Each structure stands twice: as structure tokens, then as C-alpha cells.
Amino acid sequence: MGKRVLILAGGGGHTSIALALAQTLKGKAETSFLIPQEDSLSRELLSPYGPAKELIKGRYPQTSNLLFPFRLAASFYHSFTLVNGDYDVVVSTGSNFCIPPALIAWLKSIPVVNIESRVAITKPSQTARLLQHFSKRTLLQWEEQGENIRGVVIGPIFPEKRYETRDLGYILVTGGTEGHKQLFDAVAGLDLETVVIQTGKVDPAPYRVKHPSWTIIPYSTEFEKLIAESSVVITHQGGGTIFEALLYEKPLIIVFNPELTRTANTEDMLVLARKVEAPFLEVADGAKIKSLIQETESRTKPRFENGREKAAEVILKLA
Fold this sequence. Notes:
By secondary structure, this protein is an alpha/beta fold.
């Protein structure tokens, strides 16, 4: 096989992109991964495609500015040993997690490919703004991104479908890894029959008490399956769930989480919501959410050309 590719998977939607690349590169290159410490979901998804080593992540959405420099320094230190000459190319999936190992790769003369975030549309992400100066290629997922940063537009990247699309009649509510308490509180105030809430870091106990018949889980290694078998998906501004809902042609409602403005701002999400033809709420309003749930059947389900083959082609040429 010969070509060795290290993919930097920052968790959440960034890991979804890493998975899509790994699926596409299978049989064409040897893939390895760096994942955030204690990210069992990323390990579960990516380990079938190659070894996944852990690296400290400098900043999570709730990481304080006081702690961030120390975590970032630790990430750089460990990247020196984890990123070595065994690799022909290093791929950043756009998270801040990717910055230290990508820069270490550049210092060691290993070509770097950086993929801009799917949700950074109106202005570049901080990761892309920095890594464009050190990357052999910057890959963009939307035409609009080319107005702010130089790169090659390949289209949005999706993983392969791993499950059959079915409708088991439940509403899936998710806030990603961090959770979305405002959304969960709004949905918990509604009289809905069958709901699955994935709470992330938000305490699931109050929702289990209020709705004992609902399924309340912090995380799931079968989360993609939950999407594939849902009736409606209600989520936040993270890119992973939005695009997996599109992959399985599920009606989608996006509710902004003001605690995750580092992920995407309201301007980005207004543009993205129009692209994916999904209603977007800036505030978690229970009455509006219930009304939008009732309207889901009448909405169209857009389709996009998957950019993963083009991304893999660029990666293999550099390797």
C-alpha cells in the first residue's frame, strides 16, 4: 500500500469528516489517527480503520482562558513524539485540536492538508486562518468560503451510510458532545410521546425524572443508527449531526446554542440553514419547536455531492 496518512480527528463533526476520509482511503493508504484524550466515541468510530492515539485537546467550548495556554503547551509537547517521519501526509479536519500536531508536521517537513469546517461560512475558522500558511492544500466545503480564504472547493464531506434508513417514530434531540441545556429544557416542557435525548455533558437525571417514558442517554456509540431510525432530528449548530441527518434524509430543526459560539455564529448558521433547507431558531422556544415538528413532512430534503472522493484524491497526490 505504501502511503501513510495521519488524520487529526478533533471529535464531534470533525471526527465525522475523519471517518469519511478513512472510508474513502481504505485500500489506498494506511490511515492512523490522533483523537482527543478520553474520546471513546472517536476511538469507536475510527479504530476499525487504523490505530488511534490520544492527544490532549487545548480548548473545549467551556475551557477557561487561564487553563488554555497550559493545555495548548502540553498538546505541542506530546505532538513532537506522536507526529513523526513515518507519515507521508497529515490531514487536519478543522478543529483547534489539529493546530499543534499540524504545525509539528510542518516543522518536520511533512505535507499538511487542512479541511475548513463545514459551519465556518461567513468568515474563516481560527484554525483555517492559521493553518493556511503552513498547509500544502486548504480544502473548502462551500463556495462562499473561498471569498475569505484561499483554497480548493471540494464540497461538503459525508461519511458512508452505515445503517438502513428507517422511521421508528421517535424525535431525536441532541446537543452534541457538550449538550444543549436550553434546548433540552424547552423540549422537556412539551407534551411529546416518543423522544430520545442525547444530553452529552448535561446532567440527564432531571429529564429522566420528568419523562420516565422517554429515552435519555448521555452518549451512544450507535448515534448514527439513532439518526437513521428517527422521524425528526433536532440539533445545535455543530456540523456532525446536521450532515448525518441529511445523509439519512431526515427532517431537521437547528436550534442555536449560545454557549458554543466558538463552533459557529448565528450568521454562519443562517447561511447553513438555508443551504440545508432546515428551520433555524436563535432561541430554544418550545412552542416554535413543536410547530416546526408538525411541519416536517412538508419540507424538502436537499442532497449534496459528497466531497470525500475529491478530498482523498488531493491527499493521495501529496502523499
